Amino acid sequence: MNAPTVSDLQLTARVDDRGVDVALDAAAGETVAVLGPNGAGKSTLLSVAAGLLRPDAGRVVLDGTELTGPDAWVPPHARRIALLAQDALLFPHLSALENVAFGPRSRGVSRHVARERARAWLDEVGVGELAGRRPDQLSGGQAQRVAVARALAADPRLLLLDEPMAALDVAVRPALRQTLRRVLTDRTVVLVTHDVLDALLLADRVVVVDDGRVVEEGPTQTVLARPRSAFAARIAGLNAVRGTWRDGAVAGPDGIEVRGLSDGEQPTAGAPAVAVFRPSAVSVYGDGDHEPPAGSPRNVIAVTVTDLEPLGDRVRVHAAPPSGPSLAADVTPLAAAELDLVPGLHVVFSVKATEVSVYPV
Hints:
The protein is 23% helix and 33% strand. By secondary structure, the protein is of the alpha+beta class. It folds into 2 domains: 9-225, P-loop containing nucleotide triphosphate hydrolases (Rossmann fold); 237-361, CATH 2.40.50.100. The radius of gyration is 24 Å and the shape is globular. This is Molybdate transport system ATP-binding protein. Residues 4-236 form the ABC transporter domain. It comes from Nocardioides soli.
């Protein structure tokens, strides 16, 4: 296999009927994970990059070549961009080997060289022994590995991954994730995912999209350790209350105030800020039945239980204040039973100020 082609990407796109107006850059050899709730505009972004959707305004520039612009339009097949979706979408009448050889063949490579390249890539992703099988003879995980090999065998300048593991069984995902981690090295990749492990293990940088806009971006570890958006906090397993820094507290929606410790950078009075804390740091009390203990300064938030989620030896209690983002607390099964926690029950979440990190948005 030859060294991968490495390109940098600059993309801006406004798609009016989808309410999307985003900008995204990816440096050469960088993997950028795009996170966000359903309907946020993530797949629209990939469609614009691949040339499957022409935006109302914007540009797609790959390695200095304008592919989409006011006076430029390069069709999808000529972009050398590979898009790998949730479903493998292999050609049903071709063997795994011929599926992978298709890309090089379409670029004018001889049949012999294309097959040799295909065999090498099938070996690289761990399914070389399945070269002669057709798609209906492959498991879901095997088919997706063949699809990865097919995408990379074409030597794309940019690889777009749209939830590549979403359709696979949970047991299959770790192995494919490790395969991707190995074969994506030194490639330019944009990865759309809902899985925090995908971002942590595969991405150099994270971009969070919500309601058609980029709301947060930065190095993966930084975004997931200090999230500034509700979605990033949720996938990182943290609670986040956004608001305004006022009198030593983050003043959130509906009168909620959360006090905490400044995490390095002190918010400015009147400026946007966020308070972040772990579900395991939250205590739960019945509304009016129990008073939170005195002592350390505490934040007390009235919420309504929306869902209960078993987590091994703990129960995660999802709850929401009258307005604002959903919050979570981890309690023991015994505590959940004693409080008779059910959806619709009014309870109080309490968390020590020393367990809360506060920083500017």
